[in-house]
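Quick review question:
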């Protein structure tokens, strides 16, 4: 196996999805790539990709262009080619079960109803990749307990306040990704997940 790392941002391709809640992973990866000077300027295996270095570590980045429910097709090919084991893959994605703006790192787990994560587990043959979860919250409900259907909610654009909150978390997301690479997942979880909501505020 290689000593490189693969950072994946999940989302859907196309301008109609660009600022939707389900594209939080794409947006976060774009930010990380821009901040680090790792241009996402090539296409391979149905993904937009780039690479760079963090210290001695070689970093590969990819945004699958296969639509969310087939994200694993692209990611598995990258991982196989570069011989990157699951524990060295960091997947950045939206999470309905976290409050909007909350950031959480998990070493492994199930799909939690997320189609992109389900596809990765199936195609990688392992749930042991690391997840950097970006909370988007669940749709609000009215007095009758009715709300926007989940599928419509995640494919809808961030509100102005939500986008402002998301953008304020981008430096924390970058910090989490770099901690994972430089100090490992346990240290990353301790540093990021241990912060209170107040401490996660900009």
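Suggested answer, residue by residue:
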């Amino acid at each position: 196996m290689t000593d490189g790392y693969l950072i994946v941002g999940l989302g859907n391709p196309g301008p109609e999805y660009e600022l939707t809640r389900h594209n939080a992973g794409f947006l976060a990866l774009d930010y990380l790539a821009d901040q680090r000077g790792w241009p996402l300027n090539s296409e391979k295996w149905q993904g937009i990709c780039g690479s760079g270095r963090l210290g001695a570590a070689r970093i590969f980045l990819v945004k699958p262009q296969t639509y969310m429910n087939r994200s694993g097709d692209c990611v598995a090919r990258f991982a196989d080619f570069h011989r990157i084991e699951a524990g060295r893959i960091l997947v950045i994605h939206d999470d309905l079960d976290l409050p909007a703006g909350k950031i959480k790192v998990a070493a492994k787990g199930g799909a939690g109803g997320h189609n992109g994560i389900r596809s990765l587990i199936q195609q990688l043959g392992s749930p042991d990749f690391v997840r950097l979860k970006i909370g988007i919250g669940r749709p609000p409900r009215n007095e009758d307990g009715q709300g926007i259907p989940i599928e419509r909610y995640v494919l809808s654009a961030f509100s102005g306040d939500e986008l402002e909150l998301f953008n304020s978390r981008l430096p924390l997301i970058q910090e989490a990704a770099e901690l994972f690479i430089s100090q490992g997942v346990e240290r990353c979880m301790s540093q990021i997940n241990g912060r209170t909501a107040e401490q996660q505020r900009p």
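Why it works: The mean pLDDT is 92. Residues 5-200 form a domain with the Rossmann fold fold (CATH 3.40.50.1470).
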